[in-house]
Amino acid sequence: MTGKQNIDSPHERRSFKDHGHLDVVTVGGFTLGRGVFEPGWRWSEDVKPLAGTESCQTHHTGMCLSGRMTVRFDDGQELDVGPGDVVDIDPGHDAWTSGDDACVILDTGIAGYAKPVG
Question: What CDD domains does the record point to (predicted)?
Fold first, then answer.
């Protein structure tokens, strides 16, 4: 059997500490998240308290629908992400919304992302 679920009626909504949320849909063995990263969002401030790690340890794969985000890897390299960019982001990074618009990203690497530890 095949299935479907509309992202506007997610199975789960994971709120960040401040500045946005992640809508999560799982169909069969496939999980997709739509992250809405509001202006002012930064991983090290909004998700780090939930993750309990020094940097994001999630491997992200997905596509930016709107807005902009900057990703800084633990080694200092940076990646700027904008509308239409398809990304493969290794674990070990911080990230923040760039500019005055929310950044919206579809992400397949989110099974444990932004879930409180413990």
Answer: cupin_DUF861
Closest among 102, 27, 68 to 11, alpha carbons compared: 27
Residue with tokens 């202006």: 39
User: CATH for 12-107, among 2.60.120.10, 2.30.30.30, 2.30.22.10, 3.40.1400.10?
Assistant: 2.60.120.10
Q: For residue 79, count other CB atoms closer than 10 A to its CB.
A: 14
Give the model confidence (pLDDT) of 11-51 as tens digits: 999 999 899 999 999 998 899 999 999 999 999 999 998 88
**Gap between the Cα atoms of 30 and 42, Å rounded:** 27
In degrees, to the nearest 5, what angle opens at C-alpha 31 toward C-alphas 17 and 49?
Answer: 20
